[in-house]
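Notes, p. 3: input format for complexes.
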Amino acid sequence: MTRKYNFSAGPATLPKEVLETAQAEMLDWQGSGMSVLEMSHRGKEYTSIATTAEANLRDLMSIPDNYKVLFLQGGASSQFAAIPLNLLGGNDSADYVNTGIWSKKAIAEASRYCSINVVATAETTDFTSIPPYEGWDINPDAAYLHYTPNETIGGLEFSFVPETNDIPLVADMSSNILSRPIDVSKYGMIYAGAQKNMGPAGATLVVVKEDILGKTGKDIPSMLDYQVHISKDSMFNTPSVFAVYVSMLTLQWLKDLGGVGAIEKINNAKAELLYNEIDTNPLFKGVAEKEDRSHMNVTFTLTNESLKNKFDEAWKAIGVNGLNGHRSVGGYRASIYNAMPLKSVQVLIDVMRELNN
Ligand SMILES: *Cc1c(COP(=O)(O)O)cnc(C)c1O
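Output follows (357 residues plus pyridoxal-5'-phosphate):
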C-alpha cells in the first residue's frame, strides 16, 4: 500500500496513527465487542468517547469553565445560520469582516436574519490581504462581530485577534483550529467543521461562552439552538458517533505530540519551508501578501502558465494529491494542516525545485 502525499483542503489528511487505531478498533472497540459504528450513543462506551473528546479539547485549548463545548452536525455551514439565530438578542445588526469566500458565505446566510455591517473588506486587494485593523468600522451596538481567522480558499490568515471591546467575537476556525495556542477567553464563540484540522467530516465543533446565549427571544429550530444542545450534552439527537470518535483520537494524537504549542512550531517550520521555496524559485509566486499568509493553506501560482502540464504531471507522478487550487480561484493550494508531516512538504518542495532544473 502506498499512501499519497495528500495536500487536500478538506476532508484532509489524518494522522496515520489515528487511522491505524481506528482500524485496529474497528470490529471491537476496547473489548466492548462492538464497533463504534454500532454502539448506542447513550451507552457507557460512547459516552466515554464523547467525554474524552471534550476533555482532550478543553485541555488542548485551555477552554475556561464558563464555555460550553458542543459536537454537532451540519458542518460550519449550518453555523452560518445558527450564529445570528442564537446571538442576535434584541439587536438586529451584526458586524462581519469580509476576507474571502467563507466570510462571504457566512454573511450571505446571516443576512437572512439581520442587517449586516461589513466592518472591513479585503475586496480592494482582491482578497490577498487582511484589512488593517485601524480602519475597521465597528458598530458599538452590534450583537457580535464575526470573522474568519483563516480563509481556506484564498490562503489568508489573521496574525492578530480583533479587539471588539464588549461585543462577542465569533470566529470560524474551520481550517486553523488547534494549529497554535489561542486565548479562548477573547472569544464569544469559536466554531469549526472537524474535517480540516481536527478529524473527519461529520463532526462540527462549537465552543461558546454560556452567558452570550438566551437573549434572542427568537424561535430557533431545535437543531440550531445551542441551548438545546447544551442541555442535552450534544445528544439532543443521534450524534455523528464515528466522526466524534476519530476526532477524539486525533485530539489524543495532538496531546501526545505535545499539544498546540508543539504543533505550532512544526506548522511554522512547514509553512516557512514552502513559502521560502515559492519566494526563491522564479517559477512560482505566492498569492497572499506575505504578512497575511496562511500557515495552513498555501496558495501559489506558476509564473509561466505554459509549465502547467509539466508541473501537474510531475507532482502527480510522485504521489502528491490535492494540489489544485479551489475551483473558484484556480492556481495551486497546498493544505498543510497539523497532520501533514514535514517530510511530505519536503517532497513537494523537491518537485518544485526539479521543475526549475
Ligand atoms: C470548509 C470550511 C467551511 C465549510 O465547512 P462545512 O463543514 O463544509 O460546512 C466553512 N468555513 C471555513 C473557513 C472552511 O474552511
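Residues 10, 75-77, 102, 148, 152, 172, 174-175, 193, 196 surround pyridoxal-5'-phosphate (CB under 6 Å).
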